[in-house]
Prior knowledge:
With about 280 residues, the protein is of the alpha/beta class. The protein is built from six helices and 16 strands. It has helices at about 15-30, 50-55, 60-75, 155-165, 180-195, 245-255, and strands spanning about 1-5, 35, 75-85, 95-100, 105-110, 115-120, 120-125, 140, 145-150, 170, 200-205, 205-210, 215, 220-225, 230, 240-245. Strand 1, helix 1 (about 15-30) and strand 2 form a beta-alpha-beta unit. It is globular. The protein starts with a strand and ends in a 20-residue tail after the last helix.
Amino acid sequence: xxxxxxxxxxxxxKERNLEVAERLVRDAARDGAELVCLPEKWNLLGDSAALxxxxxxxxxxxxxxxxxxxxELGVHLLAGSIAERVEGHERLSNTSVLIGPQGDDLAxxxxxxxxxxxxxGVTYRESEHEEGGEEIVTASVGDVELGLTVCYDLRFPxxxxxxxxxxxxxxxxxxxxxxxxxxxxxxVLLRARAIxxxxxxxxxxxxxxxxxxxxxxxxxxxxxxxxxxxxxxxxEQCFVAADLDLSEQDRVREKLxxxxxxRPSAYRWPQEVHA
Length: 275
């Protein structure tokens, strides 16, 4: 299966963001990609007011456009994530949607872990305007099971192990990973999640600056189950693609059967103490 990761510099101009995204999705499909993945907040990246104002339902114009591209091009399209307005909820969801080649929604994943941190002298409080999801999600792309995640989820290996145990052979990680943390951790974490679970990782990232203080690392990447980086993006809006050799993945899992050698009966989560 050939997969592509699209790298964008999304801003608060939604029309411009969709134009660039469509062009690169078409380019990736023309290159032979059967699965094309967009980054986190591909349709709109801005401050909390912009996200609240520009949030859409799953039937909104951004995902409707993505469905039309997937249907016309005959590809599976991971519509990165959008700020989703959910009926009856005060806060938004950070929502990733996998769209099939018929233009139908195959899976909807709402980012579980909220980015409430201080990095590079900037404080992020994602939970002020978004709420974490509660459901771990896998979906099929043909005969291949995908595990859906978003950005900050990458730091939580429990999520990826559960996805792998549920049969995921490929993880998607649409991101707006910051430049300070990206320089230190991006490739290390992508390779770690791939190696631990002997899975492919497709990680489309945002690149460059966006209001009010975003500075995304780029380096969108595709990593194989041995931890080798198959493709990595230059510092521009573009896509990178790679062929995912599933037979090689089978050989890795057979020769170094770490997933099969797990001993769940011996694992005990410590009792958590909450102050």
